[in-house]
Amino acid sequence: MSYNHYKKLYLLEKYKNNFSGGSYNILDKLNDTIQSNYIHNYQFEIINPEFDRDDIFYGPFIAPVIKDYIKHQTFSSILVDNTKFYTTTPLNDNIFKELVRRTLTLNKILNITKQVQVFYIDSPFEKILPDYGPIKTINVNSGVSTNYYSVVYRKEEAPKVLVHELLHQYEVDCNSACNVYEHNFNLKDNQKHKKKLLINESLVESLATIINCMFMNKDYKKLIEDEKQFILYQSAKILNYYGYKNYDDQHIIVSDTSLFEYYLFKAVILNNLDEFIDFLNKNNPVNILKFDRTKNKQLYNKIISFINQNFKNKINNLLKLNNFDKTMRMTKNIM
Ligand SMILES: [Zn+2]
Q: How far from the centroid of its chain's Cα atoms is residue 260's Cα?
């Protein structure tokens, strides 16, 4: 059963605003900031698309088939203010233009002064569940970033992926060193070693999803509610793929990518959004998008504390569906 079909059958009744606590004001304020600073028009200068391909597109996060695709692409490049954009699309491509607007808007809101670089490859590869074997980066990942540049290498979900990668580039995340070793999940990498949890991915992906809903300039709360239901559905799909009939089953999950962090922990966060936003706000009341990097462990503990029986019941109800569609998207709504 697809998510849309599931939503029609089971969710319409319950589809009301679930925001209650103080997070209302904090999110409204962020939404207002995005709306009032949104950059609709920009002037650009065409520049020489020179960069070191081996440097930018190297590394384990881009699947070989996509690396091979990139090898055959030619890029155009523009400079807007201090930001360089490289794209495989025409410069008037709608998604590319939205990526430029979002980058400029976030630069402005977050007072980014360093040189920012964005690469967009509009490859047609969609993320789908494999027929068998471990779920891998080809099934899940769409971007990569450092402190100096962000790469978005699929057309699917590109505007949301861009926000995710920019949050890394702007160092809004809680630092890549924030790996928590002690956990009770049966997560293994491809060498069957116990996997670390990159909790910063859950923080960044959840914030990116919220910001993406705000960029869409509709009823962002309703959109977040839809994303919350969608990511629950996606999490149940993944557990079902690895043989789970119940959340408390103990199957081993082998994957070389941050599956739990992108899907299950994001579902946990979006299902406890009031408390999560409250936690971010208490740790940095000036701006929830400036995470205090000394609070990594508290963030991890907070997320774990949200995995209660209520959350498990939601997953267990979904696991009863038993037949899921194949998409591995992380968000339902894009632009
Ligand atoms: Zn990430």
A: 12
At 21, the pLDDT band (50, 70, 90 cuts) reads: low
| Ligand 1 centroid from CA 144, angstroms | 7
CB 203 within 8 A of CB 174: yes
Give the Å distance between the CA of 139 and the centre of ligand 1.
15
Cα of 156 vs its chain's centroid, Å: 12
Q: Which residues pair with 149 in a beta bridge?
A: 117
**pLDDT tens digits, residue range 153-211?**
999 999 999 999 999 999 887 765 566 667 778 888 888 888 888 888 999 999 999 99
Q: Tell me if the pTM is above 0.90.
A: yes
118 pairs with which residues across the strands?
Answer: 85, 150
Which sequence spans correspond to the domains of the chain?
1-37+177-335, 39-172
> From CA 244, how far away is CA 232, in angstroms rounded?
14
